[in-house]
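User: Okay, second chain of the day. Same drill as before: sequence in, structure tokens out.
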Amino acid sequence: MASAASPRHPVDQTKLETFTALDKSALAAFCQLLRFDDNQDGYWDQRNLLLQDATGYLADADVNAPLQLKDLVSRKASSEGSKNPAITKIDVLQALHTDEGHLFPAPCLIAQVDHVVHREQEHEIISQIIKAGVNPVVVHAAAGVGKSVFSTCIGSGLPTGSVAILYDCFGNGAYRSASSYRHRHEDALVQIANELAAKSLCHPLIPTSKAKPSDYARAFLARLNQSIASLRARHTDALLCIISDAADNAQMAADELCESHSFVRDLIREQVPAGVRLVFLCRTHRQEPLNPPPQALPIELQPFSRTESALHFRRAFSDATEHDVDEFHALSSRNLRVQAIALSWHLALGDTLRELGPSPTNVDNTIEKLLDRSKARVDQGRSRRAILNRMLEHCFPGISFGPTP
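Assistant: Same drill. Structure tokens below.
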């Protein structure tokens, strides 16, 4: 037909003309462009390749996944899919019994601070993280010192071409909720892996119903290998930094559910690829429950220095004197959270200092003052639960404390 010769099989030529709606000359031109490649693997080999490819995206070797994908293609190619033969991402995920929500089960809820007070320790701590090699780093501090804010700054200090993924174990306090767990392997490792996949650094990690924590750990390590190889193909000194903020809360949630291991306890002891850095942030008195290995590097994040307190205070009160700064620094106990709460009152300078005084204030004292201030504002005649909800919502705007009875 390509040479416009007399056909040996005229019936077949007639069929092709009918199917293509092309006449003899157009059909000849079409056939001159047409090539058939029969150098494909056999059915058995193709089935094995499909199994390998599907397994590369799953948490475990789910033998049903290739069959489900094959069935999807078959249905789309049949009369069932005649009205909509396209196969979309949603179709593939449904065939694998998951959805986009399960691919990103625990997004980071740490608020971005508009004007970060960069810590005097920042350069030194990040330098230690870079030099730590494959040994995990535990950055610890007391409550309110600024661990979460510091965790958002680590990525900016890494070498050119590096990537930092921040995983939020706290989730605005929802880490204890059954609908918002963040301590399990299928939450944390899937979230981190798919954030890497979204940057085109590795394969996605699709959770499966039968996968065990060890399956997720192996699949996650494979994606760390893929990701650091991708980064270093572009920049030889690039690092991949996985940061787990409030790691102690993850283990606390596991303990409350009588689960011995959160993902933190397992990840902190894994042998990660060269070029990967693991950083865990927690309160100082909660380091031990993380069960870090002997080679882990502990680093303490110190409270605010006077210079840092001055910078923080003068962003709200540009006319503050040195004496004002000294008072603010001392009365806030050098604590970032205490300072931030005091400045959120939006009082005059003198009133702010008086509210913090007359003696130095810690986080608990500040929360108590917030509750007292809120209590004075609530309406009378409400139930105690309603008053409590109103108080908490005033103290912590943006956080829902459930319906009021």
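The chain has a mean pLDDT of 88.

User: Thanks, on to the next one.
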